[in-house]
Design a protein that fits this description.
With 279 residues, the protein is α+β, with helices and mostly antiparallel strands. It folds into 2 domains: 181 residues, no CATH class; 79 residues, no CATH class. Helix content is 28%, strand content 22%. It contains 9 helices and 11 strands. It has a 5-stranded antiparallel β-sheet, covered by helices on one side. Helix 3 crosses helix 9. The longest helix has 13 residues.
Length: 279
């Protein structure tokens, strides 16, 4: 969105208000927030817990996860580097995933190193690593993060095609609903379920498809238990997991979902979900 760049000079509050208006077509109440998106923006502006920076860093958070729930839930790490020139691709396996540790979306997936365009991957990661993700939505926890690049084991779920995200929205240490993203690279869809795996008939940004029956994860109860452990110290956090090879793997902790700019449909769910978050 052009506003991110043309109004970069603005302080956080007016920037977030203008960005919010561009997305929602109204101004948000960030000082006495009621909706979920308003509370995300309140957190960005007023809740600067330094722990959020460590827990949002894809490399630094691994130590925290190992301490809280155990190393067995971490995706196997293949390497960590300060820049793309340090990566020795010859030492990586035939399949792997590369990502920057300080942002969202800078993912490079290698399914077959024989067909892998190394130079294209390096170019993408180099560009992403030089960007300060804070400027996009003023998510302050990313502002002073040290950008690194990590390689992790390539995983797929039971489909043998992709790796679904199970994003558990927790409030006051209690899981409330689960967002499942699928077809992320080919018509992104997003279904929502309650903790008993009943389909929830509302949407957040991406369309849902209730005709696509996503099987209840066999390890749902364990995922919910792990989410409780990781969220109990926070008024709100989204705890993400994957399931591959019949094992649960930690994905990430997200404190400012969508930057506070993702529309709900119907819109009243923005307030209903906001009511779950006691600030």
């Amino acid at each position: 969105m052009t506003i991110r760049f043309s109004l970069k000079f603005l302080p956080d509050y007016p920037y977030c208000q203008l960005y919010y208006f561009a997305k929602m077509k109204n101004f948000g109440n960030f000082k006495n927030p009621k909706t979920f998106n308003e509370k995300i923006n309140w957190r960005k502006l007023y809740d600067h817990n330094p722990l959020y920076t460590k827990l949002s860093d894809k490399y630094a958070v691994r130590e925290y996860i190992a301490e809280k729930i155990g190393e067995e839930y971490l995706v196997p790490l293949l390497g960590v580097w300060n820049n793309v020139n340090e990566i020795d691709f010859d030492k990586l396996p035939s399949k792997f995933v590369l990502k920057c540790t300080h942002d969202s979306g800078s993912i490079v997936i290698c399914k077959d190193k024989g067909d892998f365009d190394t130079e294209k991957a390096k170019k993408k990661l180099n560009i992403c690593q030089k960007k300060n993700f804070y400027w996009q939505a003023r998510e302050w926890q990313y502002k002073d993060m040290e950008p690194k690049i990590i390689a992790e084991k390539y995983l797929v779920d039971e489909s043998s095609i992709e790796l679904k995200d199970y994003k558990i929205f927790c409030f006051g240490g209690k899981p409330e609903f689960i967002q499942v993203d699928f077809n992320r690279f080919n018509g992104h869809k997003r279904n929502l379920y309650d903790t008993d795996w009943n389909f929830c008939d509302f949407e957040i940004k991406y369309p849902s498809n209730k005709n696509i029956k996503i099987k209840k994860p066999s390890q749902l109860e364990n995922m919910l238990h792990l989410a409780e452990i990781l969220s109990k110290e926070h008024s709100h956090v989204r705890v993400d997991f994957y399931i591959a090879e019949n094992r649960i793997y930690f994905g990430e902790l997200t404190f400012t979902h969508g930057g506070g700019f993702e529309k709900f449909k119907p819109s009243q769910y923005d307030r209903k979900i906001g009511d779950l978050w006691k600030i």
